[in-house]
């Protein structure tokens, strides 16, 4: 690896990145930096531009503007050099279903140009890591979701890339398999890999070292999960369990002192400026409509609340 | 570079040979086409069913009937007394033609007049109708000539005896001996089966190439391949080579079937046939590659393949002679690689001609092939980034 890389502590540097598809701006002036060895999360709803941004960073799409440096190489001008330094797992499972587990590994080993003398060792490493030793001879199509996901991750790191891009790697996988997958991500991070991962699962977002919240092509918040949550404490969050959540939501939305209302489980999360005075107001407003309050209490925000609050604020600003 | 191409080629073979649908796609089209063009499609007209109506009732009219019956082209299945019956038979398609010998036929023909025979041909298939009508005319005129010759002989003999002068006059007779070259038995099978070689490789290589590339787009593996350090040219070669190999294998199989099952003559060089097949493959693999760059799904790729293949097949001269087409369309066929390969294949099979005659076709195929394959590869590169 070149000396310039050693000197550079950033695995990914993005400045003012823009991607347009016709009139539609998918990535809107995004800037961020990712440290080496960091697990960096990209959080946002579907269509926020996460996948587009990741594709640009992998050299799959050319940016319309701005600059992106991955592993020390500019993605617009040196995409082939970028490709040697990254592993990529796309949203869709993208190995060959009609090849055996081992054949998929052998194929990608060859295509990535892993030196022949190392192939056997790398294959064993991937089979161990993905816990697929006993299924090495199975048809890939017959594997359960979690295993497929781990095999895909394994095939993406065959050539030992320092930087990994995982685009919603756990979508459609059951919670236990998801947990197992995140254990692998931690292992990779500990062994020095930089992991850039996108997700729309809030619990996964909390596993990341740092997070960027993306909404409509823009980054609306960036920082460690705990910092993002602390920032939200400038206003407070209450949990409301009532006899009619939907009516309650209508009654409370847009009222003075109430910043936002969101459905959460069977109840509502209400973010308020001043809990003491607003508590009375909520009771009055719902009482007038004959809605019975079962529970109304202060809670500490989850990542999802941060996310919803941020997006609501964005929408308020826009309108 | 080559080891990466080898990986792709190996993977393609694993996939193609494991997938039952793919296996079927490799075997079924050649078998179907061989059966269709070897057994079923036959432009030869033999044993046409004919209804006979004699309104003359003379020895001459009976001789004409015998002449028809003696010809291998006709078979008299019905003898009519009324014209309306004939109409009905023609309408029902029970006979292909009706021959009516008009009253006075014998008198006219013996008197050297124009003899009146009416031939009604069922014309819904214009091709067959033309052939039937021309065969019938031949039979009638052959008979007329025969009668004429006989008459003349009698007249000459009469003249010589009455004058008492021995003369030796030869009858002016003109014998036409036609010899058909290259396909002396005039079997349409000889004409069609070699053409199957062209159809099979065109169809298989265009469709399989396009579909196998688009399939990778559809299932998302193309994106995965694009982040690997593989170069577009390696990917293209890796994708195209297996189908080139399959194409050549099919050439050999179809040729073997043509020789062993259908007894088609093969007068030229087998190596030349394979060499020309490779030139032809450049064009079809290029077309398949091009289709893959404009299609997003396998269905689209299949539709596009047929959209390209059908006109190319029609305008190749495989079934319909190019010199019968409107001039503008004839010019169009110069851009059709199938046209050149049909000429080459028939030339090698039936005429046994070699490079000294086929070089213009070979050169054109090479030019078209390099142009198509080259520009499609360039398009492919752009799509990749």
Short description:
The complex is a heterodimer of chains A (319) and B (385). Chain A is 39% helix and 29% strand. With 319 residues, chain A is α/β, with parallel strands linked by helices.
In words, what does this structure look like?
The complex is a heterodimer of chains A (319) and B (385). With 319 residues, chain A is of the alpha/beta class. Chain A has helices spanning 3-7, 50-57, 79-85, 101-111, 116-129, 145-156, 175-190, 202-205, 225-232, 245-252, 275-288, 303-318; strands at 10-21, 24-35, 39-43, 65-70, 73-74, 86-89, 163-167, 194-199, 210-215, 218-223, 236-242, 258-264, 267-272, 293-299. In chain A, the strands form 3 sheets. Chain A has a 6-stranded mixed sheet, sandwiched between helices. A 4-stranded antiparallel sheet of chain A has the order 2-1-4-5, covered by helices on one side. A 4-stranded antiparallel sheet of chain A has the order 12-13-11-14, with helices on both faces. Chain A is elongated, with a radius of gyration of 23 Å. In chain B, strand 1, helix 3 (59-70) and strand 2 form a beta-alpha-beta unit. Chain B is of the alpha/beta class and 385 residues long. Chain B has a 4-stranded mixed sheet, with helices on both faces. Chain B has 14 helices and 4 strands. Chain B folds into 2 domains: 2-41 and 194-384, no CATH class; 48-163, abc type-2 transporter like fold (3-Layer(aba) Sandwich). Chains A and B meet through helix 3, strand 6 and helix 4 of A and helix 1 and helix 8 of B.
